[in-house]
Amino acid sequence: MKKYLFYRVLRSLLSIFLVTTLTYIMIYSLVPRRDIFKADPMISKLSTSPDQLVDYKNTAYDKMNYIDYLDTKSLLNQASRPGQTVTAAHTAINTERLRQWASQHRYTLHRYPQSGSYYATRELPLWQRVTKFYSGLIQIDTPWAVHDPANPKLPRYLKVSHDPIVGWALIGSGTRYKYQLYANSTFPFLHENFIHLNLGISYPTYAGTRVTEVIGSHQGEAVTHQYKFANGQKLFSTDDVYTRQYQPVKRQDPALKAQYGDNYTAVSQQHQDPSMIGTSFKAGLGALLIAYLVAIPMAILMARYKGQWFDKLGTGIVTALIAVPSLAFIYAFRYLGSAVFNLPDSFPTSGAGALVSWISPTLILGLLSVSGLVIWFRRYMIDQQSADYVKFAKVKGLTDNEIYRKHIFKNASLPIVQGLPGSIIGLIGGATMTETIFAMPGMGKMLPDAILAHNNPIVIGLVFIFTTIAVFSILLGDILMTIVDPRIKLTATGDD
Hints:
single chain, about 500 residues, alpha+beta, MetI-like fold, 3 domains, 4-stranded antiparallel beta sheet, 3-stranded antiparallel beta sheet, 15 strands, about 15% strand, elongated
């Protein structure tokens, strides 16, 4: 078992790497880089400032690892050396020194269209872009993560302490985040900040925001909580104090420093609605429960009364569900829910805090999966009916109810149990149309939106997340199958 899990984890990691890398290569080699500015309103705003426009575009390319970009100030600093200072003056000596430096370091010199000042760019080969992505994928916070020249005596430690704001926690100093390990009343109750996933910076939508924050941060209106701060004041604040990060001394707000009692004053705001991944997971889990609660009993009855009126009726319903296009199905049930049951036809109408907002999209998403589950589970049940153990059970005198409940159902459910974790990711990823039609702020809707906006970091980040969940869900399905049926043994060789 241990050997099997070890090799499965290794193969899973390899699969994630191959899928993500292939996606990265396709996007960065086949999609024209100029397309990323099609949905950026800043391009038109900067059209009257040519120098700023050039700087803006090259900065974006630099952040997305297309190029290495040095503006005039950075270029002059790089080209200068002891005894040979390069200035911004347009002289032959400065120009020659810049050209020599650029040629030596494989940069290309350019001039801003308005000022005529020099800047430099260097194209990054595709392999280097991929390397930079993976080298910074996992970030580990340590007491030596912060380097602030204005605070050379910054203490560096990790210790368990009772913080006046959050209570007992693993506190860091010199770390990027103040609270490394802490507990609160929010699921999953125990939280950490010492390991972070870095999937890049979003652009052009959610510009300047980490991809992980775009996907994982709460949404909606800000909410307030009362805290007792380090200065002894009890105040209502929208700050999410658990996200406190180090703020350089030069950018410090004296009032915030007095309030928190240290330099960890950069905080995110609290919002009332679930994150994008939380919204999709919540809707997907609810849809999965609906799908199984409807499909399993229906498939059992159809298999048990094969060829009879209920089986024929169920087959007709399943055929109709398959035949009707998903888009038409969604719109029809959306209209039915709105016209008959007065349910909102758009998620933002009542918001994530209202139960009625979730009913229609969750129900529709669940019903869309019913037909596939019914077909497969009915087939498994019918296959098991002709097995030898069923005939033996009848000879022993077991009733049909006992045979179905204790034997047929259990054996037929193994493939369903194995595919259960994968069904969750399938529902999350397959909710694209549902989330789009109902304007739900989830991951399903986010992927096509990111593709249309040419938000490459978001696309790659979502592919990475979906692939990771899908790959490990298969492994979890195998483990669940062994729990349901202890006779199944997982081995590295596949002999058992």
